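S1.2 Input.
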Amino acid sequence: MENVLIGKIAVMKVKVINMKSIIKYKLALLLLIISIAVNASNSSEKNPEQVVVQMQSSLIQAMKDGEKLGYDGRLKFLEPVIKQSHDMELIIKTILGATYWAQLDNEQKKLITNTFKELSVATYASRFAQYEGEQFEVVEQRDLPHEQKLVRSQLTKSDGGTVNFDYVLHHTEAGWRIVNILFDGVSDLAIKRGEYRAVMQRDGFPALIELLKEKITAARHP
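S1.3 Output.
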């Protein structure tokens, strides 16, 4: 009887050991699957240069198809492109500054962000409307302070002249996004900061929204 009991205990111990081994194996397998998924996700994420190149390729395509698409067609074509390459909320937040941004309620923040986004797409659709052989070329990518990246590029025009486009990007949960553009060394963020803050200080938030809407209309009818 004692031998039978000892045998049963031994069998139970073996089962417990086997169960623990199975659990450890499943856990290791799960961790491996998660690791593979994370690595695959990271490897598929575009780096800063790829984000800029993809956007610029879309701008060239909009120019090539500019006449066929018309303004509304270019607007529709470029909207998702700009959304996927720019951090519009951070851009407008930086333009207004912490003080003015803090004065806005949630509805106002949503309104200014959406209106600014609409203006940005309208500006691209207006300026990149006709193709005459222009070409973008990335010159370099380098690190900036605060974990930002700079992608320097050059647009060669049909007459051989060039325009330098420098893009500042930061990393978000959705990937790398543009937060500032410099045209031949002039910061678009700085220009808008001076203009928008002056309107906010002088005339208030409704006047700024009205200004952006006027600019959207002007983009449609340059």
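S1.4 Remarks. The chain has one domain: 48-220.
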